Amino acid sequence: MGLYGVVRYHLAPPFILLAFPCAVQVLAQLGQGEPLEARALLVRALGSAFAWTVVGAWVAWAWLWLRLPARTVEGPATLFGYTPVYQDNGVLYYWASLVAFFTAQALWPGLSAGLWAQMPELLGALNTTALLLCAYLRAKAKRRPEHPADRQPPRPAAYEFYCGLELHPRLLGVDVKQLTNCRIGMMGWQLLIIAFYVASVQRHGFSAATLVNLLLQSVFIAKFFWWEAGYFSTLDITLDRAGYYLCWGCLVWVPCLYTYSSYFLVAHPPSLGAWGAAGAAALGMAGILLNYRVDLERQLFRAAPRGQCSLWGRPASFLVVSYRDAAGAPRQSRLLTSGCWGVARHLNYTFELVGALAWCLPGLGLGPWPFLYFFFLVVLLVHRTFRDEEKCAEKYGAGWEEYCKLVPYRLVPFVF
Ligand SMILES: NC(=O)C1=CN([C@@H]2O[C@H](COP(=O)(O)OP(=O)(O)OC[C@H]3O[C@@H](n4cnc5c(N)ncnc54)[C@H](OP(=O)(O)O)[C@@H]3O)[C@@H](O)[C@H]2O)C=CC1
Ligand SMILES: CC(C)CCC[C@@H](C)[C@H]1CC[C@H]2C3=CC=C4C[C@@H](O)CC[C@]4(C)[C@H]3CC[C@]12C
């Protein structure tokens, strides 16, 4: 095993497992403009009665919505022959959660300010919940794997804990990834930024920049629920396993880092004026809609019989590529070479970054903190580009190489 292997399997996972939960507590404390004090950090990380009540109610609400009778939708079949089934009530769940939140806010006017003030406690409670869930998922995968054909080669324990072992585990009758990623993480992001907006208006009064910060993210999140079925074909679901990276990430990292620009603006009101806010809104809407457009083109293309669909007013062009499933049987797939997927291989990531930068812009002039999410996303998406391409090269071999020749740029045409 070379140096890369030692870092990847032995050094990076324990570091991330220890450093990220600490980073979350530090960020929450700093975002409130509070000095860092070891004892306070530790005590607040244990949670509070309020924080545990919120987390308990939130998890129960999300779980309940996945247990309600609803239309179902199938995800892509795995190479080991399993087709996951998901509840297709994301849009209804999104609106119902908003109504429930605003009702709770009307009944308890201090709710939003309380959520902001107790964010370190909330993250502490989420952290404990997420770590327990990851430990349970690992133990379950070792003792009672749901799909024995999906066995992973044994790796160091911290690496297994970090990456997860099972692709589609279920818990209490629901799909774990749909619960943690879509229903708790994404909706938690939405509700927290609304709470932070309300807390900010209660403190400083109305600001166009703060409103733009909220609205852009809300459009992005609402779009996610509109497209939830499409999410089931992404890397998170088809490649990444249910472990710390995804489950802890969606239960703790998303509520902390993805909401951070809004969280930060509560203690540090923005100085961006109305015209600046309007510019950020226009840039952000363009980024979000174009990101959606790229994802939609692939979804329409993959759903069309034999890839026969029209893109940009012309019949889509594509490559027919071959691969083998887990049983070694030959299969075929198609890679789009026209529309957005003919411009760059990951144009959806590029537009995602534009949208994210735009909603961080209201924090301009307040230092790097409001841009933390954007910086993280650059690293995540560049790394993800390489991970995805490694997966595709392995899966399609020469077919992928041919596609890369036809579409030579990854994120930005003529640059990268
Ligand atoms: N805010 C955030 O934290 C993040 C947001 N995202 C967003 O999530 C969405 C999904 O992203 P993600 O799952 O990473 O990846 P993509 O949606 O880009 O999907 C990549 C997969 O698409 C297939 N594919 C690749 N090239 C083509 C082609 N030319 N034609 C047809 N299919 C192709 C391959 O899968 P196959 O095996 O099926 O061929 C490949 O593995 C995007 O909008 C992205 O911006 C993603 C990551 C983080
Ligand atoms: C080091 C780790 C703790 C990092 C954890 C990262 C995860 C929380 C995120 C990794 C990929 C992210 C997502 C992928 C695709 C998405 C679709 C988009 O439309 C909405 C956002 C998201 C669901 C996003 C959510 C966070 C990740 C799972």
Automatic annotation (TrEMBL):
Transmembrane feature ranges: 12-30, 42-66, 92-110, 122-139, 178-199, 206-227, 242-260, 272-292, 356-382
GO MF, one annotated term: 7-dehydrocholesterol reductase activity
Enzyme Commission number: 1.3.1.21
Entry's localization field: Endoplasmic reticulum membrane
Listed pathway(s): Steroid biosynthesis; cholesterol biosynthesis
GO cellular component: endoplasmic reticulum membrane
Gene3D superfamilies, per the entry: 1.20.120.1630
Membrane topology of the entry: Multi-pass membrane protein
Signal peptide: none
Reactions the enzyme catalyzes: 7-dehydrodesmosterol + NADPH + H(+) = desmosterol + NADP(+); cholesterol + NADP(+) = 7-dehydrocholesterol + NADPH + H(+)
Keyword annotations: Cholesterol biosynthesis, Cholesterol metabolism, Endoplasmic reticulum, Lipid biosynthesis, Lipid metabolism, Membrane, NADP, Oxidoreductase, Steroid biosynthesis, Steroid metabolism, Sterol biosynthesis, Sterol metabolism, Transmembrane, Transmembrane helix
Record GO biological process: brassinosteroid biosynthetic process; cholesterol biosynthetic process
Family (UniProt): Belongs to the ERG4/ERG24 family.
Protein name: 7-dehydrocholesterol reductase
Classification of source organism: Eukaryota, Metazoa, Ecdysozoa, Arthropoda, Hexapoda
